[in-house]
Specification:
The chain has a single domain (3-283), classed as Ribokinase (UDP-N-acetylmuramoyl-L-alanine:D-glutamate ligase), CATH 3.40.1190.20. It is 38% helix and 21% strand. It is built from nine helices and twelve strands. The radius of gyration is 18 Å and the shape is globular.
Length: 285
């Protein structure tokens, strides 16, 4: 049974963060373990979210409880997302180190751990929406530990100090991080399309799909989870990118068709694992 450890937000009434990712992994038979960094009632974009941050001591205790049950040695993919404090980031970094050092349990689904860091800091519209010290801790303590990074274009600029507007230039910037990078919210020449870039040392791939209006928040979290599921299955980057972007596009189309105000992850069910949405993919280099 594949296992995912998700260190991110838990938002009860919105399909964002770790809660959304746990639901999205279900069609792929990946069992989620969520260690929450915040407990909110709704996404802050709707207004005051209710709830609040999980204290660093409590967050550490949750992670230690997971470890005490032997789950770090069983984890196939470890995903980090939203953090409310620098202390939480440091605890997550320690958890990654201990998961890598743990002797792999013979009952584990896969032979190795994959660490996916979504460096959630902000976006182009709002700028930084975590504390400056949180952003710095993510850059210093999590980015170097990642096997795969999943920033949006704005976050990529924050990590590299470089800016670009076109996919090929964005790919060159991503390559300076010297590890596989999945860049979301990539503008493409056709304004009716939105893209996702996959970049590693050997290739850069651009997948794009129709840009739809008024899609609920959480598509970046969904993309990270779907790509993580593909990594657990051992899909090649081209196939992983294609299926993950298809899944996000399928979700966006369902939002429009069903007039959904949150991502309909549960209702889509197996469609996330076998999406049919139209996606264009091309090799840039």
């Amino acid at each position: 049974m594949p296992l995912a450890l998700i260190l991110s937000s838990y938002v009860a009434g919105s399909r964002v963060g770790g809660m959304a990712q746990a639901l999205a992994l279900a069609p792929f038979k990946v069992d989620p373990v969520v260690a929450p960094t915040v407990l909110f009632g709704r996404h802050p974009g709707w207004g005051p979210p209710g709830g609040g941050a999980v204290g660093a001591q409590t967050f550490r205790g949750v992670v230690e409880g997971v470890e005490s049950n032997g789950l770090l040695a069983l984890t196939d993919v470890l995903i980090t997302g939203y953090f409310a404090s620098a202390e939480q980031v440091w605890i997550a970094a320690e958890a990654i180190d201990r998961a890598r050092e743990a002797t792999r349990d013979p009952r584990a689904y896969g032979s190795r751990l994959t660490v996916i860091v979504d460096p959630i800091m902000g976006d182009a519209d709002k700028g930084l929406y975590v504390k400056e010290e949180v952003a710095q801790a993510i850059a210093l303590d999590l980015v170097p530990r990642a096997d795969i990074l999943t920033p949006n274009v704005w976050e990529l600029s924050q990590l590299t100090g470089l800016e670009a507007d076109y996919p090929r230039d964005i790919a060159q910037i991503a390559r300076t991080l010297d590890k596989p990078v999945l860049v979301t919210s990539v503008p493409v020449e056709d304004d009716d399309q939105i893209g996702v870039l996959y970049v590693d040392r050997g290739a850069s791939l651009l997948a794009s799909h129709a840009r739809l209006p008024d899609i609920p928040r959480g598509t970046g979290d969904l993309m990270t989870a779907l790509f993580g599921a593909a990594m657990v299955e051992g899909l090649a980057p081209h196939d992983a990118l294609y299926r993950a972007v298809q899944g996000v596009a399928e979700t966006a189309e369902a939002c429009v068709a069903w007039k959904a105000f949150e991502l309909p992850i549960v209702a889509l069910g197996e469609r996330l694992a076998r999406p049919t949405a139209s996606v264009r993919i091309e090799t840039l280099s």
